[in-house]
Amino acid sequence: MSDTTNVRPFHLAIPVSSLDNARAFYGDVLGLSQGRSSDEWIDWNFFGHQFVTHVAPNVAGLKNHSGVDGHSVPVPHFGVVLLRDDWEALAERVKAADIEFVIEPYIRFKGKPGEQGTMFFYDYCGNALEFKTFNDDSQIFAT
């Protein structure tokens, strides 16, 4: 199960406080295309993965943190690994939308195995997202 040559899309469902907030963030800010939906949920094309926002205001946006590389990282969080140009374009898109970064885009583990660009921010419902980039994808699982 460790072979990454035939990676299939993942499915992830998260709680949101409202579908209007989900549409504004995932549709307008991130530019994701919307799939099926109801009054309780929306399917999104999350960079080729099936991502669903479900209305659950009592659990959306619970916040915890853990230390990584001298930063306080939000837990839980999710995201994808992007190509460098796409990662930089997303950072600019987030800045243009006046979304505050929890952790500004920077290079983590510089000069060490697993060196990566990373950034963290919250959606409009308080869910934490992390987007990464690697100069060399063989470093994704480096130890």
From TrEMBL:
GO terms for molecular function: dioxygenase activity. Gene3D superfamilies: 2,3-Dihydroxybiphenyl 1,2-Dioxygenase, domain 1. The keyword Oxidoreductase applies. InterPro entries: Glyas_Bleomycin-R_OHBP_Dase, Glyas_Fos-R_dOase_dom, VOC_core. SUPFAM superfamilies: Glyoxalase/Bleomycin resistance protein/Dihydroxybiphenyl dioxygenase (SSF54593). Keywords: Dioxygenase, Oxidoreductase. It comes from the Bacteria. The keyword Oxidoreductase applies. Residues 8-134 form the VOC domain. This is Predicted dioxygenase of extradiol dioxygenase family.
